[in-house]
Design brief:
The protein is α+β, with helices and mostly antiparallel strands. It has a domain of about 110 residues: Trna Endonuclease, Chain: A, domain 1. It is built from three helices and nine strands; from the N terminus they run H-E-E-E-E-E-E-H-E-E-E-H. The chain is globular and about 45 Å long. About 30% of the residues are buried.
Amino acid sequence: MQKKLSKELLGLTGEYAVASELCKRGMYAQLTLGSHKHTDLLIETETRMLRISVKTKQGDELPSISGLYRADDFLVLVDMQGKVETERPDFYVLSLDDWQQLISKEHQRQPAIRVDKQNRITYPDGWSGLNIKPAMVLAAKERWDKIVSLISDNNTKA
């Protein structure tokens, strides 16, 4: 069993793991430094820029995920729970449509929630963000094709 990482190291581990997976698929993924909201990685091609937000967990769920609101944004969830250092984590790749479906399901479950223009959930008690367990996003597991399909020329800039 892997030892618990600090929040900072856990985040970096996830970001580098996602960048590695994207590079293996022929995309140049550049990490953003600092605390740039909603963007951990950038993928630039001749025709577009994709923004990737990475959230990494080592416990049961990812707390307070604020989500997506632009068509060129993706959320990649990295699940390191129960993995040892030599094991590859599980990845869940969510598009804007996937995020909106999650919000819709949560709204059906709890009709009193509010959703703002940036698709962020706020509960009646003031809690903001959606807690996500892997079981909620199984259809997104290893769905790198969602990102790859948007890179039409496969000629990313370094």
